[in-house]
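From the pipeline queue, job 12 of 40. The input is one protein chain; the requested action is below.

Action: predict structure.
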Amino acid sequence: MFVCERSGRGDQQRAWELISRPQEWSRWAPHVRGAWGLGEGEVRVGARGYARLLGVVPIPATITAVDPGRSWTWQVGPATMVHRVEPTAEGCTVAVEISAPAPIEAALRIGYRPLVDLLLSRLLSESNKPLRVG
């Protein structure tokens, strides 16, 4: 397992809303162009659906755990990803823990980690802006 995390002046509640609502993912992760079947509003345990990457590729996923306001976990292919939001004195920490079989995890650590680090920085920045309505 490896962890990507960023801490800053983000609003914890807004960060949770952005990270837990599929309809908001493209706001901070522009490569995610939609999702369906993972929960209305926030993700929900047991939901099976897809995230659409780059507007074309549907990636099957299952939500396996949710701790409202704190974390949620999904299984995406052979990888398990835990998304967390934690309060800090200055704002919040947002993190993604990624685990997978060793060769896949090694590839993700090299190829995907830099993107996740950038996306978490975007998430913190977006958490200081109002959510879109509708």
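Job complete. The CA atoms of residues 78 and 109 lie 14 Å apart.
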